[in-house]
Amino acid sequence: MVGRGWNWVGARAYGYNSISYGVCFIGDYTSTLPIKTALDMVRYDFTSCAVNGGRLSSYYNLYGHRQADSTECPGNSLYREIQNWAHWELFALMTVASTMNN
What we know:
The chain contains three helices and no strands. By secondary structure, the chain is mainly alpha-helical. It is globular and about 35 Å long. The model is unreliable at 96-102 (pLDDT under 50). This is Peptidoglycan recognition protein family domain-containing protein.
C-alpha cells in the first residue's frame, strides 16, 4: 500500500476532502475486482490501522466515491463489493455538504 500520509488533504470529492480519507484502487473495476490481497489490505489492514492509531473513529462510515461526487468511480463491481463491508452506508453526507456550501 502506498499513501501520502495521514495529514494530506486530497482533492477527490468537494465537501468531503477535509473530513475523510480517500483510498484509490488503480484500474477499471466496472466488471472485475481488484486482487483479493489489495481488497483485504484496505478492508482490514488500513481501517484497523486508522482506528487503532486514533486517525479514524471506530464508528466510521464507508462510502463509494460516486456517493459523494458525480462519477462512475469506483466501478460497478467494486462498488457492489464494498456494499458488503462493515461500516458501508447507503447515503453519503451530501445533504450536510450541501448545507455547508450554501
